[in-house]
Structure formats: C-alpha cells, structure tokens
Amino acid sequence: MNISVITGASSGLGREFAVQLDGYGLDELWLIARREDRLNELKEKLNTKVRIITIDLFNDSWRAELKIILEQEKPVVRYLINSAGIGIYGRYDEISEADNDKMIDLNIKALVAMTVIILPYMNKGSHILEIASCAGFVPVPFENVYAATKAFVISYSRALKYELNSKGISVTAICPGKIDTEFFEHTGNAKHKPEKKGYIVSAKAVVRHTLKTACRGKQTTVYGMPIKLYQYIGKFLSHDLIIKFMTKFNREIMK
Questions:
Q1: Distance between CA atoms of 77 and 4, rounded to whole angstroms?
Q2: Which residues fall within 8 angstroms of residue 237, CB to CB, at 6 or more apart?
Q3: What structural domains and CATH numbers belong to the chain?
Q4: What is d(CA 125, CA 109) in angstroms, rounded to the nearest whole number?
Q5: Share of the chain above pLDDT 70, in %
Q6: 105 to each of 16, 59, 67, 178, 246, how far by Cα in Å?
Q7: Most exposed: 8, 79, 109, 115, by fewest CB within 10 Å?
Q8: pLDDT tens-digit profile of 124-161?
Q9: 140, 215, 116, 141: which is closest to 174 by C-alpha?
Q10: CA distance 151 to 137
C-alpha cells in the first residue's frame, strides 16, 4: 500500500499538499492534525482514500499511537510532508517561555520524531519534504527562535539527505516566504500581529513548485524571485549586514 503522510493537513500548505497529491495515484493519504472537523471536510473533497489521524503533536503520546498504526498497516510511505509548524513574532521579552517551547517542540522535536518514525516504511523513490522557511537562511531579529528552528530544519534536512542517498530516499527542505494561509492568524503576540502585505504567494503555487523540484531530488527549494534573491544574498553577503537590515525592517513593522 503506497501512501503519503501529511502533518498539519487541516490548513495551509499541509492541506494544499493533500489536494495536489490526490492526483498522484497513491492508495491512501494519511492526514494528521488536531482539528478532526477540518480533516473530515477535506476528506470529502478528495478522490484518494483518506485515513484521518487526529493527534496533538505537542503531546509526545502521539509517537506510540502512530507506531502502532504503522506496525499494523505496514504501508510504503512514498511522501512524508512535515508541514505542521508554528511561529511567534515579537521582541524577546514579549514572547513567553511557553511560546518559545511550543516553537521548539513542534518545529524541531515533532518534525525529527515524525521523520525517524516514518523512515523505516520508506524505500527507494520515497520523498521527505520538511517545511522550513526563508527565515532559516540567516538569523532574524524579532523572530529569533522561529528563525532558529527553521535554520535547524534546513541543516537537518541537508545532512539527512546525504545519509539517505544510498537508499534512494530524497530529502528536501522547503523554504518559502510569506504565503497566503492562516499562519498569519496564529503568528505574533498580544502587542504585534504581522500583516498580510509585501510579497505574498499562494499555497497552491508553492506546493506545485515544491512537488516538481522535490521529485528531482533538490536539497532545498524556494519559490519566487524575491525569495531566491534573499537566499542568494544570505550565501554571499555578510550576515551582520543582513541582520542589521532585518532589525530595522522588523522594528518598523512592529511600530
């Protein structure tokens, strides 16, 4: 049984991955999220058979639960999409310790655990897509923990890709900029809320581009010329200069 496992499937990029993978000839789509009503709504729109797995990735008990399901079904996972994530935006003293923990727990710990748990069920030709962010290219003031978690995802994905080359399993870090999703509604803090403005792209366009490039075995992928330029600048320009610019840019947004 060939399947795809998608975390964060109830909204945003995760939901769009489910929609587009619906046409990939898989036997089942395994959709993971907390909001069962959203997953059921999505299920009705898909032609591929769907298994809904309602788990809370903030609670480590999900690991044992998922392992039991995998051991029972013994699927071949063709695509793992680690799309679940959270970002909290603001000054270091405006973000609570609990919110910092949430970003680390979901963006790093849950992502790594999901990858390690799923890997025994992948084989040659399988793909791992880890959702990072262009924020992971360089340190970003006022997004310090969020950007650091995404830098981890990029580094982890690149290293894991080379470990899995001999098995024929590809690993791609997806590094988008701003996407028109619900992410903005859950970002920020009581004082500051990022606005949907500037260079914003659709989830549909990002996912279409991602699936195309990931299937070619790319280790990182970005969408849109401004984000490609930002990636290029991050490689060749002093990070100190970029950090100074981002400090000024984000401080203006927070006013």
A1: 6
A2: none
A3: 2-254 (3.40.50.720)
A4: 25
A5: 85
A6: 24, 9, 19, 22, 25
A7: 109
A8: 999 999 999 998 988 888 899 999 999 999 999 999 99
A9: 215
A10: 6
Burial label for 241, CB within 10 Å (0-12, 13-18, 19+), is exposed
Give yes or no for residue 220 having a pLDDT over 60.
yes
Please indicate whether residue 146 is annotated as part of the active site. yes
3-state secondary structure the chain: CEEEEEECCCCHHHHHHHHHHCCCCCCEEEEEECCHHHHHHHHCCCCCEEEEEECCCCCCCHHHHHHHHHHHHCCEEEEEEECCCCCCCCCCCCCCHHHHHHHHHHHHHHHHHHHHHHHHHCCCCCEEEEECCHHHCCCCCCCHHHHHHHHHHHHHHHHHHHHHHHHCCEEEEECCCEECCHHHHHCCCCCCCCCCCCCEECHHHHHHHHHHHHCCCCCEECCCHHHHHHHHHHHHCCHHHHHHHHHHHHHHHHC
* Residues 224/199, Cβ–Cβ less than 8 Å: yes
Q: How many angstroms separate the CA atoms of 86 and 105, rounded?
A: 10
d(CA 119, CA 79): 10
In this model, does residue 26 exceed pLDDT 80?
A: yes
- Among 89, 146, 223, 230, the one annotated catalytic: 146
